[in-house]
Amino acid sequence: MNGTVGVIERYKEFLPVNVDTPIITMGEGNTPLVKSTNIGPSVGCENLYFKLEGSNPTGSFKDRGMVMAIAKALEAGRKRVICASTGNTSASAAAYSARYNLQSFVVVPSGEIALGKLAQAMAYGARILAVDGNFDDALTMVRDLATELSIELVNSLNPYRLEGQKTASFEISDALGDSPDMICIPVGNAGNITAYWKGFTEYRINERITKLPRMMGFQAAGAAPIVRDEKIEDPQTIASAIRIGNPASWQRAVNARDESGGNIDAVSDAEIIEAYIRLAREEGIFCEPASAASVAGLIKLASQGEDLKNLTAVCILTGMGLKDPTTVENHALVELEYVEPDVEQVAALLSKDAA
Ligand code: F0G
Fold first, then answer.
1. Are 286 and 280 in contact (CB under 8 A)?
2. Ligand 1 atom 10: residue of nearest CA
3. Residue 350 alpha carbon to ligand 1 centre in Å
4. pLDDT per position as a tens digit, 12-71
5. pLDDT tens-digit profile of 209-262?
6. How far is the CA of 88 from the centre of ligand 1 (A)?
7. Shortest-distance atom of ligand 1 to CA 84
8. Secondary structure of residue 320 in the 3-state scheme
9. What angle do CA 177, 178, 180 make, to 5 degrees?
10. What's the whole-model pTM score?
11. 282: which DSSP letter?
């Protein structure tokens, strides 16, 4: 027997599951909700938590939605799936496809996705198409390809993706005993903020929680179409996962923002990198740059005078740091100290530094 319980099994009463839907899993969900030790107190937020979505099977939150999308593709008898991706969707699609015997095609912006994510798609055996363009171009292309070739589209335009992703708000609510007051979340294609809001509102309607959180979304300053209220033709940011100029779920993210009394703001690359390094060095949490946008956003809110003292805030850390070793090399480099295997010499070296 397979004893692993994933998000479909755990939350099936809230998901589009019928007798023909296979209850598949790779152990996604049930990710840690970890209380901040240093960053929270430093910004006056005593009840700050991090949701470690990098602990999912392929290292990002995408697995929650992908498992649902793949289950529905299997239910419909599909054999092939396709997605456009800045890297994490493609890793997840490739992994679940491999496990459930589907062929996966992934379309990525050429030269723009983090090394580890490309390595994942390769390892899982996806067919990888590197398009000479950005994510928005790739997404436009796969929408047409999916229709033309009758391949299942597993981007967040696929409604089952968001259904699966909303389980993260159930987990947070279950863990805290009620909804938090504030969610800080990176925004790229804007599917995840939409999914979280859907999850919280459904939990509220079903009286699992007594209140709703303010949804605080954060885009990278060079890729902030929602903040600027205009499409960005050539989005730029170090956070390649959210380098998106025309988000598919734009309007739904705006609705989540407005209905929740929240906000969507921009954070600069410098602020993202600062939060990324602080998370690693003050919390022991190594996430990818896009994920750190949530914490950069919280720090920005505090610096603007927002009173965070009496509220419970959760920053969504969407993906794990190992996916993007290049950013460490470029922004958090520590010089190696080459030594002989000689205790006395090394002891002398270390005590000199301690003095
Ligand atoms: N964080 C990470 C690590 C991501 O990979 C993404 C999106 C986001 C945040 C933003 O989430 O798009 O739902 O607003 N990655 C997509 C991909 C675009 O192709 O992997 P969103």
1. yes
2. 188
3. 42
4. 999 999 999 999 999 999 999 999 999 999 999 999 999 999 999 999 999 999 999 999
5. 999 999 999 999 999 999 999 999 999 999 999 999 999 999 999 999 999 999
6. 7
7. 19
8. strand
9. 120
10. 0.97
11. I
